[in-house]
Amino acid sequence: MKELLIATKNKGKVREFEVLFAQFGYQVKSLLDLDESIDVEENGVTFRENAVKKAETIAKIFNIPTLADDSGLIVDALDGRPGVFSARYAGEGKDDNANLEKVLEELEDVSESKRGARFHCSLALAIPGEETIIVDGTCEGIITKEPRGEEGFGYDPIMYIPSLGKTMAQLTKQEKNKISHRANALNKLQERLASSV
Ligand SMILES: O=c1[nH]c(=O)c2ncn([C@@H]3O[C@H](COP(=O)(O)OP(=O)(O)OP(=O)(O)O)[C@@H](O)[C@H]3O)c2[nH]1
Ligand SMILES: [Mg+2]
Predict the structure, then answer these.
(1) Which CATH number characterizes residue 29's domain?
(2) Which domain holds residue 120?
(3) Strand 26-30 vs strand 2-6: parallel, antiparallel, or unpaired?
(4) Count of domains forming the chain
(5) Tens-level pLDDT at each residue, the chain (197 residues)
(6) Residue from 94, 48, 53 nearest 72 by CA
(7) Closest C-alpha to 90, from 75, 109, 106, 110
(8) Is 13 in the pocket of ligand 1 (CB under 6 A)?
(9) Residue 39 · residue 98 · CB < 8 Å
(10) Which of this chain's residues are annotated to bind Mg(2+) (predicted)?
(11) Of 10, 122, 159, best ligand 1 pocket probe by most atoms within 8 Å of the beta carbon
(12) Which atom of ligand 1 lies at the shortest distance from residue 156's CA?
């Protein structure tokens, strides 16, 4: 089985990539397997900038092809926040629950028709000696009034997908992987790689 390094320490992402890459015959390794002490500062203004920085920094350290994911939640009524700050929206060191509670609080007086949001995922594939490939994927939804569901991670319990009638945290990993921003970005990456051989 081929191996691919994912420049992440997020267990939720790793779990999803394991399933997504299994279909292409890849086993994924992450910084959690290799070196948890490596920290790449995410100081970019865009998801793309952060994804490229994570992928290229880690690819250089290990000299192997490396994929990085920079993602987050974009809420219309919050002018696009938390955006690139999604992982630390409630402050450094705060957990997923604190972050989603902050979003719910900020939307307390916002009616259902104005609670539109989307997840965004930028993927960067850095292969030593080659130009980095960057793709994006999104997933549209509506922010609920309260958390629902136990699956997934991050803001999944407050992201309602109207076409499925469930929050993303009420979907199985397989169901989420059919519609998620991460899966959509990965499909684009696969198309890019297929058209370049
Ligand atoms: O409900 C969610 N479902 C998802 O599918 C999802 N994908 C991303 N996110 C949120 O956005 C932050 C990304 O920040 P991020 O890309 O910097 O990742 P991270 O710092 O957690 O890990 P790393 O990959 O940088 O090591 C994460 O922490 C999450 O809060 C998600 N929330
Ligand atoms: Mg991060």
Answers:
(1) 3.90.950.10
(2) 2-195
(3) parallel
(4) 1
(5) 788 999 999 999 999 999 999 988 899 999 999 999 999 999 999 999 999 999 999 999 999 999 999 999 999 999 999 999 999 999 998 999 999 999 999 999 999 999 999 999 999 999 999 999 999 999 999 999 999 999 999 999 999 999 999 999 999 999 999 999 999 999 999 999 888 76
(6) 48
(7) 106
(8) yes
(9) no
(10) 41, 70
(11) 10
(12) 1
Q: For ligand 1, say whether the CB of 66 is within 6 Å of any of its atoms.
A: no
Distance of CA 11 to the CA centre of its chain: 11
70 is catalytic: yes
Q: Which residues are CB-contacts of 194 (< 8 A; sequence separation ≥ 6)?
A: none
- Please state the ipTM of this predicted complex: 0.97
At 165, which amino acid appears? G
51 touches 70 (CB < 8 A): yes
